[in-house]
Design a protein that fits this description.
With 94 residues, the protein is mostly helical. It contains two helices and no strands.
Length: 94
């Protein structure tokens, strides 16, 4: 237990206080530590999700599309369209 990171000290202390020392095996400690780590990772992911800003999506007040907001509408703001490969409709050359 001396190699356990400081961030897990409180979990180890609680484990030792609630488990009889005869039943405190490496398997029990490992299982509890893995469960704690999983819980911490899930908590961090949930925290990141709650901190992200929601994207502005439809309906667009300019063209009526449900996939974007008027502030990002390429028909209203063609200057916002990414330059480069034309991903839109192909025009006939002939």
């Amino acid at each position: 237990l001396s190699k356990v990171p400081d961030s897990y000290r409180s979990m180890i202390s609680a484990l030792m206080a609630t488990t009889e020392l005869d039943n405190l095996t490496v398997d029990v400690i490992l299982a509890k530590t893995l469960a704690e780590e999983s819980m911490r990772k899930n908590g961090q992911a949930a925290s990141r999700i709650s901190q992200t800003k929601p994207k502005k999506t439809g309906p667009c007040g300019h063209c009526g599309s449900q996939t974007h907001h008027e502030s990002t509408c390429y028909k209203k703001h063609p200057e916002l369209r990414p330059q480069g490969k034309d991903k839109g409709k192909k025009k006939d050359k002939g």
